[in-house]
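User: For documentation purposes, I need each entry recorded in a consistent format: the amino acid sequence on its own, followed directly by the corresponding structure tokens. There are two entries in this batch. Please keep commentary to a minimum and don't merge the entries.

Assistant: Recorded as requested. Entry 1:
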Amino acid sequence: MTGPSGPGSRPAGRLTRERMLDALEAQVGLVRFALAGDGLGASADADVTAPVPSCPDWTVHDLVAHLGTINWWAGETVRAATPEARTRGMGAVQRSAPPATDGAAALADWYARIADEMLATLADTAADAPAWTFSGPGRADFWLRRQLHETTIHRWDVEAALHGAAATTPVAEDVAVDGIDELCTVMRPHFSPRTAALPVTLRLRARPHAGDAAAGPTGGLAAGAEPVGAGALGALEWELTGPPDGGEVEVAGPPETLALLLWGRVRADAPGLEITGDRAGLDAALEAGLTL
């Protein structure tokens, strides 16, 4: 695998801490809004028993209870500052979610309390404070980055379950680019011992909108962000290495669509994606899953 970083390290082109905090706060707000509206009369009246197509066997309630628990875990891990051991207690937190019969507003309030506590912890803790990470002792900002992308993907899941994939809030291009990078350089290495080996070498190329970077998420990379490259491959390109005798496939497209593809949220025939090379190998890799 080629990339700008390994698990637990800090690539020079990554999103700034301030950008990640702002983006994570926005994703938390979107989850709450999807469930309960703005609290000022515009109620979402969400059906928390609705199935989540992108997370088989889960309802919206199950998904939000999971996301709240993971957000709590991140915050508690940072607060504990014990780099040698992971934080326990996730089961009790997940069981503390109100039952689906209490409705969307109760679930939204439960989630908001947990997520706000996580946000406060991440904002108040120095980026280089010690913390346990997936690769062992590391930095607290590992969890800021991880929760940004965890929450972004599951916010997409919630919105898609309630309103359809076409009605989901677009992911800002800088956030999507960093999400691709995190999956390739952190999550795939972490999960690879427990997932199927890649049948092909997978090359990825993100193609941001060609607008002015100062225009924000709808016009190129948002202000305050820099492209995340992959070393010798150049900017906005990554490689997941398959067997020496395997085929090769390249997937290029908009950052959001590419990120959603890698996380199994859209198919390889999604609009905007350009695929060259071993399409059958790509389909096999995606079917097996790049992470758990």
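Entry 2:
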Amino acid sequence: MTTPGTTPPPARNATATAVPGATPASAALHTTRAHSFNAAAAQYAANRPSYPPALLDALEEYAGHPLAGARVVDVGAGTGIATARLHARGAAVIAVEPGAGMAAEFRRTLPDVPLVRGNGNALPLADHSADLLTYAQAWHWTDPALAIPEALRVLRPGGTLALWWNTEALDVPWIAAAAQRVDRHFDLGLSAEKRDLGPGTADPAGRLGLTRRTIRWSRRVPLDTHLANLASHSVFLTDTEERRAAFLADERRHLLAVFPDGTVEEAYDVVLLLATTPTTPPAA
């Protein structure tokens, strides 16, 4: 979707600017977490949950057209979990990913899907070239002050912006208890951050007019897969090996008390934020 003969904006890795108002220390931690996935790309691809068909149905309903044949850009594509779903629906997908490790895993699993290096703060794509721009588990690594103008630049008039996250279903008792253990381990309000995902946090200036939908789904996985999924999150990847191993061993004991057969029923709420670009592009 680049335009021949033009020079796209420079691709930038996640930087401290992704956390407006952050202290230097917290910005540095954010950057470290953003880059942590590259060394664990295979673990991420093998254990992270995918997305339910109802999510893709919701995208088609909101956009008012099928994904089949649509020009879709999946930003922060990672190992291609969301890209694969979009591609399977017949979308003409280009993936954008900043990380070398994640990009290598993507190319291994989806060799026929175009992939360019870059991120949402500076998309290496032509103006008004996409029908749909998606960010699966990725918008929080961008700086909205940069990413929103870029999204509006790349989307065609009347195009759709879709941001979504798989979040734990915290009304399920065992999941709420597990989330509290993670919060205590890191002394962070991670579960509260997930509850607060919405238009106000994704678009603090209110430029997009985002609407929110929630889609509940679940999967049954072996306990080892559940723990490997948990360990693939950035807070664990940037923890010390000793602390991570101790937590996961303790978590295994907790979960075997709930799931003695070793099969975990994970329940998720996909938080989906949607916006439509103006049908007439702004004057230059």
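Summary note for entry 2:
The two ends are 21 Å apart (CA to CA).
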